[in-house]
């Protein structure tokens, strides 16, 4: 009887303690007996947040492929990578009628039986019953399965965090040290998850944290402990032999003695580390075509090519860049570039709004308004969107959450959308940041008349209450704030903002160089480091110091030696696609290619109801009727035109260029360039040279001229050679040299 009474009393106490979520050590029990846990000192107590969450992360329990997925697994859901420890505690201790925890018999708790595979577990065995992780779980349950956080993680240091590896055979021992709020430190290497960006390039022994590189290059490893994710960078020189001062054949220096700009200094510094030689400088013809396309979206005219090539002025490149930056063509082309970023014209039923928005943007470019002022204008805009261009910023996407995602990608280069359902797994953004920013935009009514709506709100999915307006990663605003946009824009465009300037200069760099210092350009985070972080910081600081002037930043890039390199590779740098040892070839954008085809053929294309002669780069509406732009793969701007799904050089485009009416229907029609040259009595070889200048901005090489002389009867009239000349024009407009900027 006494035994039965004791059992009932014990069970009753256990249930009460379980419902309270913890066990107090000063509870008295019948017969002076204690439940099965160790009444150890506070310093020996298991800290749920700091001791157990790392176990779940280390063994993948809270990963997206397991219980950390949006729906969880097997009716058991944990927060992704332990982003919400309190929710995890509730799921383990309170849910499933408390069956996951057995205070009387800790070793029979499901939270131990499942991962040790002592009972059926969909994930198989992830813990050894005698492992440290299993012992910590048992000790925690023996101590009462309480939620205790004895200290707060302040930072994690990884060593080595950045290292040059010259010998691939040498293993690299990784180490992680955690620093806590109570001034203690701990080696947490065993609980840190090291994940290579490329598993085929880097192998990591999870039991010893030893890394080994399998190939040369720049490799990123992510180290995760609790909420901290730290990038590790290993650089293995791409060539085994150190660079010499000159090429073996005595040509140009591999690393010039003095770099032309700070841009070149940073680029050459990394190239030297990687042992990558630089290609030679591009000649004047290539530079002229490249920079004219990059700054104006046009190929240079034959007259411009001839004038530039014969100009003896040693400063002619600087003069050219200055002229291009002040041209109407620059205004039109960079209006297009920013219109794509702003997704102007994405809403088909708002044609009038798109028109005034585009006109406003064009005026900003023409007047040289600072990029910070442009951002302030669109974020703070109100009024009739058919009259106030910037007000259409709030008619671009549907809803405040989408507006928060759009704004953060555009002006911060950050994918805040990853923090909608859970804290960002690879960045510092939280659900509070995401829904707090959405709460700011919820107070804007986005009908034709854009105005403040103080009653607007969004519901925070974690709290099921109204989200409190918040500046992302910075601070909450008063819950009753009527319009938080002024605080938002003041923070965003402040000179110490770590995102705003870097996000736009990175995009300018990509437009000129073919690849961003951070890729993708809308995915800035510590775990996606820039290839040249010091250069990115310097470019951003200089951009801010010069009034957020787009032309200033573009001029700096255009006049650097790094920009002016040839696209021709050397055997030692042929595989380089991100370190700028040579120029990268860039497919011409659909609008630019369409205009280039029209310019070379001398036959303008038709765009909807627009006047004849309208250029594709000047269209404000991305949905303007145009078969050519559809074929060439234009972006409709419903989503970001920077996304990986954008294809500007697909199969359809190639087929139409090779065998469609896009070219064939216009090459030799009356009034075309070819027709006029033939009518003017030009010889076949004169026509050949004219088209080389018009299409490729250069004269034919000796080899090319000999080739065409074998196919063209140079002694016959051009009129009798029309078919061959049309084939010649077709071949120029479909060759890689024409459809790319190189």
Shape: globular
The major β-sheet equals: 4 strands, mixed
How big is the Rg? 32 Å
The side-by-side strand order for the widest beta sheet comes to 2-10-9-6
Instruction: Count every helix, treating DSSP H or I runs of 4 or more residues as helices.
Output: 27
Domain unit count: 5
Please, what is the average pLDDT?
88
> Which percent bin holds the helix content?
25-40%
Q: Could you tell me the strand content as a percent range?
A: 5-15%
The strand count comes to 19
Q: Stretches where pLDDT falls below 50 for ≥5 residues?
A: 1-42, 246-259, 644-648
What is the CA–CA distance across the termini?
92 Å
Structural class: alpha+beta
Protein described:
With 742 residues, the chain is an alpha+beta fold. It folds into five domains: 2-142, no CATH class; 153-236, Immunoglobulin-like, CATH 2.60.40; 284-326 and 498-586, no CATH class; 414-488, no CATH class; 587-609 and 621-741, no CATH class. The chain has 27 helices and 19 strands. The strands form seven sheets. It has a four-stranded mixed sheet. It has a three-stranded antiparallel sheet with strand order 1-4-5, with no helix packed on it. Strand 4 and strand 5 form a beta hairpin. Helix 16 packs across helix 18. The longest helix has 19 residues, at 2-20. The radius of gyration is 32 Å and the shape is globular.
């Amino acid at each position: 009887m006494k035994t039965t009474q004791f059992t009932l009393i014990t069970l009753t106490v256990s249930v009460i303690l379980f419902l309270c979520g913890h066990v107090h050590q000063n509870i008295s029990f019948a017969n002076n007996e204690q439940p099965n846990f160790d009444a150890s000192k506070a310093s020996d107590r298991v800290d749920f947040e700091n001791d157990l969450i790392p176990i779940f992360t280390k063994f993948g329990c809270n990963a997206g492929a397991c219980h950390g997925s949006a729906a969880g697994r097997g009716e058991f859901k944990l927060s992704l990578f332990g982003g919400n420890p309190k929710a995890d505690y509730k799921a383990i201790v309170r849910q499933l009628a408390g069956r996951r925890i057995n205070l009387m018999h800790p070793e029979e708790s499901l939270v131990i039986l499942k991962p040790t595979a002592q009972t059926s577990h969909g994930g198989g065995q992830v813990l050894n019953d005698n492992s440290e992780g299993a012992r910590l779980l048992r000790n925690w349950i023996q101590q009462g399965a309480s939620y205790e956080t004895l200290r707060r993680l302040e930072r994690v240091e990884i060593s080595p965090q950045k290292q040059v590896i010259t010998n691939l055979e040498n293993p690299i021992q990784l180490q992680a040290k955690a620093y806590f709020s109570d001034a203690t430190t701990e080696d947490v290497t065993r609980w840190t998850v090291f994940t290579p960006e490329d598993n085929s390039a880097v192998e990591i022994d999870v039991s010893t944290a030893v890394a080994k590189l399998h190939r040369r290059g720049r490799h990123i490893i992510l180290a995760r402990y609790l909420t901290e994710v730290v990038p590790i960078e290993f650089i293995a020189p791409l060539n085994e032999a150190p660079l010499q001062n000159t090429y073996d054949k005595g040509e140009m220096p591999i690393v010039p003695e003095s770099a032309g700009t700070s841009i070149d200094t940073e680029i050459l510094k990394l190239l030297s580390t990687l042992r990558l030689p630089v290609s030679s400088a591009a000649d004047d013809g290539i530079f002229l075509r490249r920079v004219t396309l990059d700054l104006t979206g046009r190929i240079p005219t034959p007259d411009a090519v001839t004038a530039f090539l014969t100009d003896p002025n040693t400063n002619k490149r600087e003069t050219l860049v200055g002229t291009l930056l002040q041209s109407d063509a620059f205004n039109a082309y960079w209006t297009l570039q920013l219109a794509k970023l702003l997704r102007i014209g994405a809403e088909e039923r708002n044609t009038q709004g798109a028109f005034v928005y585009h006109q406003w943007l064009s005026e900003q470019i023409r007047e040289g308004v600072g990029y910070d002022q442009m951002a302030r204008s669109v974020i703070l805009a109100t009024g009739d969107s058919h009259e106030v261009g910037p007000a259409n910023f709030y008619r671009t996407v549907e809803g405040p959450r989408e507006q928060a995602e759009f704004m953060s990608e555009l002006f911060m280069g950050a994918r805040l959308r990853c923090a909608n359902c859970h804290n960002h797994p690879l960045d510092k953004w939280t659900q509070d940041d995401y829904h707090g920013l959405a709460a700011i935009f919820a107070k804007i009514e986005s009908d034709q008349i854009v105005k403040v709506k103080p009653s607007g709100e969004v519901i925070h999915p974690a709290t099921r209450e109204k989200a409190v307006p918040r500046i992302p990663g910075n601070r909450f605003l008063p819950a009753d704030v009527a319009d938080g946009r002024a605080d938002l824009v003041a923070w965003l465009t402040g000179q110490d903002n770590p995102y705003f300037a870097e996000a736009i200069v990175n995009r300018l760099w990509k437009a000129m160089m073919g690849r961003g210092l951070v890729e993708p350009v809308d995915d800035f985070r510590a775990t996606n480091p820039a290839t040249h972080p010091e250069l990115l910081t310097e470019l951003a600081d200089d951009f801010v110091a010069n009034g957020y002037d787009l032309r200033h930043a573009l001029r700096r890039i255009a006049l650097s030696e790094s920009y002016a390199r040839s696209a021709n590779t050397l055997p030692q740098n042929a595989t380089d696609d991100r370190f700028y040892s040579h120029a990268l070839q860039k497919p011409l954008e659909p609008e630019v290619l369409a205009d280039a085809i029209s310019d070379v053929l001398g036959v303008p294309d038709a765009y909807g109801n627009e006047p004849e002669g309208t250029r594709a780069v000047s269209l404000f509406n991305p949905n303007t009727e145009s078969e050519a732009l559809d074929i060439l793969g234009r972006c409709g701007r419903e989503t970001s035109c920077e996304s990986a799904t954008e294809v500007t050089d697909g199969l359809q485009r190639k087929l139409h260029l090779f065998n469609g009416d896009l070219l064939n229907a216009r090459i030799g029609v009356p009034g075309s360039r070819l027709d006029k040259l033939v009518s003017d009595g030009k010889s076949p070889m004169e026509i050949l040279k004219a088209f080389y200048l018009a299409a490729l901005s250069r004269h034919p090489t000796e080899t090319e001229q000999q080739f065409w002389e074998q196919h063209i009867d140079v002694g016959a009239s051009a009129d009798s050679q029309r078919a061959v000349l049309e084939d010649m024009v077709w071949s120029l407009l479909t060759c890689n040299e024409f459809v790319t900027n190189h």
